[in-house]
């Protein structure tokens, strides 16, 4: 048995190294599975960034309506929505969404 191992020493070391490097190529911190997970995380973060940018732009627009050029129509809309005020002889209906 020892003689057989000595004869195939190079073959055993080569197989061991090939298995070791192929295992580390697929798994591990820098492996293929980790790359796929990080790529998915990056796409999720990019989508979240786009939604946050659109929210910031919407808030900037609403802020500009209230600060630089005072938009009376927007203020009236805010008062109607927040304080449920209406004009004289006007009926206000409150529609609530069913929470399930």
**Separation, N- and C-terminal Cα atoms:** 72 Å
Alpha-carbon Rg, integer: 33 Å
Mean pLDDT metric: 86
Apparent shape: rod-shaped
State the helicity in percent bands.
over 70%
**Unreliably modeled segments:** none
Structural class: mainly alpha
**H-E string:** HHHH
Summarize the biggest pleated sheet: none
The counted number of beta strands is 0
How much strand content do the residues show?
Answer: under 5%
What is the overall number of helices? 4
What does this structure look like?
The chain is mainly alpha-helical. Helices cover 72% and strands 0% of the residues. It has four helices and no strands. The chain has helices at residues 2-7, 9-26, 32-67, 72-83. The longest helix has 36 residues, at 32-67. It is rod-shaped and about 105 Å long. The model has no long low-confidence stretch (mean pLDDT 86).
Write the layout of secondary structure elements.
Elements: H1 2-7, H2 9-26, H3 32-67, H4 72-83
Tags for this model:
single chain, 100 residues, rod-shaped
Question: Could you provide a short overview of the structure?
Answer:
Helix content is 72%, strand content 0%. By secondary structure, it is mainly α.
């Amino acid at each position: 048995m020892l003689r057989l191992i000595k004869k195939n020493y190079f073959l055993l070391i080569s197989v061991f190294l090939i298995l070791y490097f192929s295992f580390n190529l697929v798994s591990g911190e820098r492996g293929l599975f980790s790359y796929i997970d990080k790529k998915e995380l990056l796409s999720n973060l990019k989508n979240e960034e786009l939604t946050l940018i659109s929210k910031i732009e919407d808030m900037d627009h609403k802020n500009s309506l209230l600060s630089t050029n005072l938009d009376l129509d927007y203020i009236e809309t805010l008062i109607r929505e927040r304080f449920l005020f209406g004009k004289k002889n006007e009926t206000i209906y409150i529609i609530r969404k069913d929470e399930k």
